Amino acid sequence: MKAIDLRSDTVTQPTEGMRKVMAAAAVGDDVFQDDPTVKKLEDKLAEMSGKADALFVPSGTMSNLVALLSHCQRGEEYIVGQGYHTYLYEAGGAPVLGSVIPQTLPVEKDGTLDLDKVASVIKVDDVHFARSKLLCLENTHNGKVISLEYMQKAYDFAKSKGLSVHLDGARAFNAITELNCELSDLAQHADSVSICLSKGLGAPVGSVLCADKEIIQWARRWRKMVGGGMRQSGVLAAAGIYALDEHVQRLAIDHANAKVLAERLLGIPQLSINKDLVQTNMLFVKTDMETATSLANHLKQHNIIIIPSETMRWVMHLDVSSSDVKFVSEKVKEFFA
Ligand SMILES: *Cc1c(COP(=O)(O)O)cnc(C)c1O
Asked: Which of 9, 11, 12, 61 maximizes ligand 1 atoms within 8 Å of its Cβ, making it the mutation to test the pocket?
């Protein structure tokens, strides 16, 4: 019996079709920039995002790191939400490896940064201060979609203050699925955008940074420095191309599944779910730690995997079908019955 793993959308297995194109991929040495399949993936995402260039990297963390290091020099700062991945979940990479200073702000309920608060932390040019250089946004954030109106407002605001904008679009395709727009409609409101192929898109490895030629040239150098220059990586890029061709349309299924699961669990008094926050492929389920732990144990017996916590994140993906969702809701109800 296959497990229903709700811990993350990173747990997907490469499909048969994906494994086939990986096995058949034409490859070269990408550090010499002669891997045709990597080039094809980079060209494809550059075009989709409306940027001049793109760079394939091993992970979203490395993509964000090389982006931050390419935008900011030593002693310059990036303004970032304190719950955003680029601050909280990247082991302090930008300050540790690049001497780039994070200026954090609380993230608003809708996943945005309040632009008045951003304005209040931008430093004047004075020897006492780090130089404010970059505004870092995230879309989606905790499954929440940031509107194009906000993105445009934030971008225009940043430009008016002389800041560049980096968008952590690890799940940008989930965002544009809900926004019902093209990737370029979103990416136009940032100078660089990082996209994960290994989340909802279902590739085993990889992210792509999209930006202008100068930023990508810098990013390529930083990628080499941090050990991300790969050789016959066309095998991995082929999975990414396949994911972009085959797995973007189906993201809507994950979003529908998350909504259905939330609806089915709404009547359980021990669980608290804010339906309005279920906008893409995740739902957040609140309870106490003891209940979460015994619920996780119960579900484990039925091959359903969740991480117990007071606020649990249950994530839909390629390997969770709508009948799986029905099965999960039945087992959760059974536990509380
Ligand atoms: C997963 C994720 C990343 C990083 O991706 P990895 O490939 O796991 O390093 C960056 N930003 C966000 C918002 C993510 O969810």
From this structure: 61
CA 56 / ligand 1 centre spacing (Å) = 14
Ligand 1 pocket test: pick from 68, 195, 196, 207 the residue with the most ligand atoms within 8 Å of its Cβ.
196
Q: Are 142 and 284 in contact (CB under 8 A)?
A: yes
Q: Average pLDDT, whole number, for the chain? A: 97
pLDDT tens readout for residues 131-146? 999 999 999 999 999 9
Residue 59 CA: nearest ligand 1 atom is: 7
Structure pTM? 0.97
Smallest Cα–Cα separation from 192: which of 176, 175, 214? Answer: 214
Q: Is the CB of 196 under 6 A from ligand 1?
A: yes
The CATH number of 16-246 is: 3.40.640.10
Domain map (residue ranges) of the chain: 16-246, 250-336
Looking at the domain that runs over 250-336, which CATH code has it been given? 3.90.1150.10
HSE, side-chain direction, 13 A CA sphere, residue 44: 18
DSSP 30: G
What is the best residue among 9, 145, 199 to mutate for testing ligand 1's pocket, by most ligand atoms within 8 Å of CB?
A: 199
The Å distance, Cα 125 to ligand 1 centre, comes to: 33
- The secondary structure element, H or E, covering residue 105 is strand 101-105
Query: Tens digit of pLDDT for each residue in 148-205?
Result: 999 999 999 999 999 999 999 999 999 999 999 999 999 999 999 999 999 999 999 9
Strands (E), 228-320: 282-286, 304-305, 311-315
* pLDDT tens profile 295-322: 999 999 999 999 999 999 999 999 999 9
Residue labelled with tokens 């990416």: 187
Contact (CB, 8 A) for 275 and 258: no
